[in-house]
C-alpha cells in the first residue's frame, strides 16, 4: 500500500534541498548501498540502485532548466517519463504546468513522487506502468511536453525511450531530456539548449560534479 511505502521512504530518506534546484526539496538517501539492501527485502526494486532515492544529474539539469524557463511549461500538459524521485515533474508543477503526470515502472518511485510532491506543495499525478510501447497521446490524453532525465543508461532502455520520444515529437509534443553524457545517449539526434555543472553523489558517479546538458528533440 502507498501508506506503507510512504512510511518506508520517510523513515529511510532525508528531506532536503536539491543542489542545483535548492527551491525544491526531495527525500534523498545519504548513500546507496544500505538503502539498496533494504529494497531487496519487502520493498524490492527491479532497478537497482533505487533511482527514486537520488537527485540524478540529468534530472537536476532538466529541473533547473524548467524553473529558469517557466514559459516552457506554463499552462501546458506535461508527462515526465521514468520519473524516479519526481524531481522534474515537481519542477514542472512549480513552474506553472497545467497538469503533470509522472510515470515509472517502480512502485517505490511513484510513492516517492507522491511524498515529494506533498513536501513541495504541488499536485503531480502518478502512473505505475511501462508506457514505452504506447501512443504518448493515449496515456493521459493530449500531452504538450514530455520530459526525461537520465534515461540513456543502457542500450535496451535507450532504444525503447528514443522510439517513444520520436513518436511523441511526431505527434506534436515538445520533448526535453537531461543527460550527463551517459554511454548510450544517441549522438546527433538532439539539439542542446542548456548546459550545467551539476553537483552529484561521489558514491554514485565517482565524482562530485557532472557536466550535464539539456536537449530538445526535433520532429523527424
* CATH domain topology: Rossmann fold
Q: Record the strand order, biggest sheet.
A: 5-4-3-6-7-9-8
How many domains would you count in the coordinates?
1
Helix content, binned percent: 25-40%
Structural class: alpha/beta
Largest sheet: 7 strands, mixed
- Average pLDDT, rounded to a whole number, is 89
How does CATH name the architecture?
A: 3-Layer(aba) Sandwich
In words, what does this structure look like?
The chain is an alpha/beta fold and 220 residues long. It has a single domain (2-217), classed as Vaccinia Virus protein VP39 (Rossmann fold, 3-Layer(aba) Sandwich), CATH 3.40.50. Helix content is 33%, strand content 24%. The strands form two sheets. It has a seven-stranded mixed beta sheet, sandwiched between helices. It has a two-stranded antiparallel ribbon with strand order 1-2. The chain is globular and about 45 Å long. The termini are far apart. Residues 41-48 have low confidence and may be disordered.
Describe the structure using short key phrases.
7 helices, 9 strands, 7-stranded mixed β-sheet, Rossmann fold, single chain, alpha/beta, 220 residues
The gist of it:
The chain has 220 residues and is an alpha/beta fold.
Secondary-structure map with pairings?
Blueprint: H1 2-12, E1 14-17, E2 25-28, H2 32-39, H3 57-68, E3 77-81, H4 87-94, E4 99-104, H5 107-119, E5 125-128, E6 145-149, H6 155-170, E7 174-179, E8 190-199, H7 202-205, E9 209-217
Parallel strand pairs: 3-4, 3-6, 4-5, 6-7
Antiparallel strand pairs: 1-2, 7-9, 8-9
Helix pairs in contact: 1-5, 3-4
Amino acid at each position: 500500500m502507498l501508506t506503507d511505502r510512504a512510511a518506508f521512504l520517510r523513515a529511510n530518506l532525508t528531506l532536503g534541498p536539491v543542489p542545483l534546484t535548492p527551491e525544491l526539496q526531495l527525500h534523498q538517501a545519504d548513500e546507496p548501498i544500505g538503502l539498496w539492501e533494504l529494497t531487496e527485502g519487502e520493498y524490492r526494486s527491479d532497478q537497482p540502485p533505487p533511482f527514486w532515492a537520488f537527485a540524478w544529474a540529468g534530472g537536476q539539469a532538466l529541473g533547473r532548466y524548467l524553473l529558469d524557463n517557466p514559459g516552457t511549461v506554463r499552462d501546458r500538459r506535461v508527462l515526465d517519463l521514468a520519473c524516479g524521485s519526481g524531481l522534474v515533474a515537481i519542477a514542472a508543477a512549480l513552474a506553472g504546468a497545467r497538469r503533470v503526470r509522472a510515470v515509472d515502472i517502480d512502485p517505490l518511485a511513484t510513492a516517492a513522487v507522491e511524498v515529494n510532491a506533498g513536501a513541495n506543495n504541488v499536485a503531480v499525478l502518478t502512473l505505475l506502468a511501462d508506457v514505452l510501447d504506447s501512443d504518448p497521446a493515449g496515456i493521459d490524453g493530449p500531452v504538450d511536453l514530455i520530459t526525461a532525465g537520465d534515461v540513456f543508461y543502457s542500450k535496451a532502455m535507450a532504444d525503447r525511450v528514443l522510439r517513444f520520444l520520436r513518436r511523441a515529437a511526431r505527434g506534436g509534443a515538445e520533448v526535453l531530456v537531461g543527460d550527463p553524457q551517459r554511454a548510450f545517449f544517441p549522438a546527433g539526434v538532439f539539439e542542446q539548449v542548456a548546459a550545467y555543472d551539476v553537483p552529484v553523489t561521489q558514491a554514485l558517479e565517482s565524482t562530485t560534479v557532472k557536466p550535464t546538458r539539456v536537449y530538445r528533440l526535433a520532429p523527424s
